[in-house]
Amino acid sequence: MPHRPLKKVTVPAAVRRLTDTFLADLDAALAAPGANWNVVARDTLFSLAYPGQGSWQERADDRTLPAASRLALAALDPRSITLEPEYYAEVDTARFARVKPLLWLWYSFDRLPIGGQHVAVGIEFRRLLAPRIFARVGANFKCFQHVEFSFGYQLEVGDDVVVHRHVLLDDRGGITLGNRVSISDYANIYSHTHSIVDQKDVTSLPTVLEDDVRITYHATVLAGARVGENGMVGAMALATRDVRPYHVYVGIPAKSIRVKPNAPRHTAETHRVPKRHDGG
User: Fold this and answer.
1) Which of 76, 108, 135, 169 is the most exposed place for a label (fewest CB within 10 A)?
2) CA 70 to CA 169: how far, in whole Å?
3) What is the CATH number of the domain that holds 254?
């Protein structure tokens, strides 16, 4: 098969300079002693959504604006909105309060013209926020638009990880992504499960994707599963249990159908051979 590495694409120099300045200013604002991340998120979103319209406070104080406009302005402030994980019984209120402004900034940025499909800015913007949200993030993290989390603070990410569009990383029970993990568009990785008898009976189970794992389009990995090194979950598959290293799992529920050609010898077996009882 042809080898097709990504092309290098550049933006105009003036845009590059504006991007560098914007990200440097945001990084400095978040890192400043005593910084209020709610205010930083609010003012950043206002500047991006309403350029040239003065300050957020000036617009919010304008009582001549319709209620809908004032409500939209209020929603730029993370303290004025609620996110679903705040309602979960096991949420660590203090830890979530710390990351909530950055989650709201991340999600809202993705829904603005500058963030939706603007790869050059979006990846760097999310890379700047990730270390302040996640439990750990390695080098060269690449995340595309409309990725969402549960808590964020229960997520550990290795080096050179790529997360594509519209992915859900439900880190309620903890998710670990090893080095060079790739998660394709519309995939879902869960770390909690509900009882079939009582929906309020929730079990949190850590989910692990080891080094060089690939989760492909629209696939789902359920809570507690461990996808072994170089394992792959195919498109639309549902991984309900562990995925063996170097194996390719497809279907619902996902089962091994082949072993990657680069697999070490000990990983080559795709299924258990039943013991014989006829003396042979």
Assistant:
1) 135
2) 32
3) 2.160.10.10
Which DSSP letter does residue 243 get?
B
pLDDT per position as a tens digit, 80-139: 999 999 999 999 999 999 999 999 999 999 999 998 789 999 999 999 999 999 999 999
For residue 157, the cross-strand partners are 137, 177
Whether 165 is in a domain gets the answer yes
122-139 burial: b if 16+ Cβ within 10 Å, else e: bbebbbbbbebbbbebbe
249, 222 Cβ separation under 8 angstroms: no
Q: Yes or no: say if 214 and 233 are a contact pair by the CB < 8 Å rule.
A: yes
Cα-Cα-Cα-Cα torsion 235, 241, 242, 243, nearest 10 degrees, comes to: -20
Do 166 and 183 contact (CB within 8 A), yes or no?
no
Rounded CA Rg of the chain: 22
pTM for the model stands at 0.91
Tokens for 235?
């498109």
190: domain range?
138-262
